[in-house]
Amino acid sequence: MAVKRNPLSSIEVHGPVAAHQARAVIEESLRNAILDGRLPCGTAIRQEALAALFGVSRMPVREALRQLESQGLLHVVQYKGAVVAPLIEDNSLESYELRLLLEAEALRQSVPLLDEQDLASASGYIEAMEAETDMSKVGTLNRLFHQALYNKAPNKKLLALVDAGLIEEERFLRFNLEQMNLGSLAQDDHRTLLRLARAKEVDACVAELGLHLQRAVNAITHYLDRRKTKQP
């Protein structure tokens, strides 16, 4: 009789986890495992198993799972508990419409306040994407680039919503960037966004962001249409 594999066996815990860091450590560990595919879609995440793995109570585990659910990485399913969400949901296009509104406002607030260090960080992420061949890492660099442009927005609740959307997109990009053939187009968009942000041309920068996100909408539409044609 085959031994059922523990889905959490791919997560390494290095020593005891301090109580005040438990929620953040569990959240980051699970997020990384979901984003890089070690915890694939449909995997059930048991609170008891997580608490035992990290040597903590269930409270920080529940808090971490709630955070990941708010980022679209987990669903809470009756009788199964927390389950790793699909890469793309049927309502993902609606999510992108909301993302465009949120990110446009974050960019509008942030651009006038960006300093040279912010712009240098954004430029560095573009250069890193140029040199990177591992598409999973490109997805992370893409998220960091956008966060560098948005980070000076004073509205922290807005930034939290924006970050959740970027994390959801990162997971999709990690697995589909190559197939979407968006690499060079996205980099051209990124350079234009950076140039306009550096020049403090806020309206033009926001308009460019709309064009950039529309490419992702088109890619997701194609992905969903292709998935539907494969269904019996």
Automatic annotation (TrEMBL):
Keywords assigned: DNA-binding, Transcription, Transcription regulation
Ranges for domain HTH gntR-type: 20-87
Gene3D superfamilies in alphabetical order: GntR ligand-binding domain-like, Winged helix-like DNA-binding domain superfamily/Winged helix DNA-binding domain
Name assigned to this protein: GntR family transcriptional regulator
